[in-house]
Amino acid sequence: MSARTGPITEKAKILAIVVAALGYFVDIFDLLLFAIVRVDSLKSLGVAADQLKPVGLWLDNYLQVTGLVIGGIVWGVLGDRRGRLSVLFGSILVYSIANILNAFISDVPNAGFGALLHSLGLGSAINQYGALRFIAGFGLAGELGAGITLVSELVSKERRGLATTAIATVGICGAIAAYFITRVVEWRTAFLIGGIMGLALLFLRIGVVESGLFRTVQEKQVRGRGAVWLLFTPWSRLRRYLAVIVCAIPIWYAVGILIKYSDAIGASMGMPEGARPTPGLAIMWCYVGLAFGDLASGLLSQWLKSRRKALLVFHALSVLSIAAYFIVGPLSLELFYGCAIGVGFTCGYWAVFVTVVAEQFGTNLRATATTSAPNMVRWSAAGSAFLWASCEKLLGNTPASPWQAAMLVGALVIPLAIVSVFFLRETYGRDLHFTEDEMA
Length: 440
Known about the structure:
Blueprint: H1 10-44, H2 52-81, H3 84-102, H4 113-119, H5 125-154, H6 160-184, H7 187-204, H8 212-219, H9 235-246, H10 249-259, H11 262-268, H12 279-304, H13 307-327, H14 333-346, H15 350-360, H16 366-394, H17 401-421, H18 436-439
């Protein structure tokens, strides 16, 4: 039989887990690469020092994450209509090509082919950077959701949490690898490496089988497959969807503001020049913590036999670690990086989050929800950035306003996340052989 219709053996399940884990590894590598090389790449393109923060926010927290949310919807719908494998292949092809092209951006003369680029607004390297970050975000949006959906439907309910934990833990290490690669190669080469790694994964995916649950609803022509509007009605389903998104927003508040812009926040907290954190290193240490946090949260949910209890425990711990970030972190660079590890660990409930999303929805909407929800969470980085900038203005744009504004944003999003957990259904050990109609 073909890879799409073959028997679902233990070997096939293990291969699916390995491919999903490696795919997420490349996903995180490419997703965080811009944040790591932001300062160096923008400086080399002629961006002034006082514009590094606003230009970085525009490229990353707005353009890239907008690509993620649009891609999350498109790839999710395709996953429920055409199959999980089609998304795994298509998404990685898009973001790999975008990252390879990212290695060659430059200002071009307004003549010949350059005239066409100028007519499209892509004559400058910065505009090319923005367009490619959007396209890369669009492609990256399909990777995690399709992999988690596929594995969740292939693996037994007893082992599902362990499988998704393994995927998340391995995947998070992509950010650590990105940091060390950027220490030995310049930023253009790093983008090229990320794109080539993605294309290499296409060959590994040839042997992966399609989900049996998806094939069943496809053969029965179950209605509502990939009908994205069904996520918004009735209210009980919309409430479920909103709850899973809101419960994970603190992760991307922490990564998208506290860690990615640790240089600006560190300066505003009075850390002396020459002893301030660098975003690349802060991201690396944060993701070390995230890797261990993903492993710990996943194992905790298995031990407690409860997804909701594990989420609540990690939310409580994140309050303490983020408080330490603001109170203890400024005392020294070493303590700051230690706090970055702590923030990463306590925000490392991403493994439980993606498992919960897959378990909350029926097979006819599972890929749509599991692919779009994580990218809605990533999109929240734009909302957090907007709130951060707005709070800075309200505080008068004083030297201390960056860290004070960041703290205020955290004081808003973390309590909302804790409350949202109580609107989720407990799904530990749940059989996923159901549709939304059957749930109703």
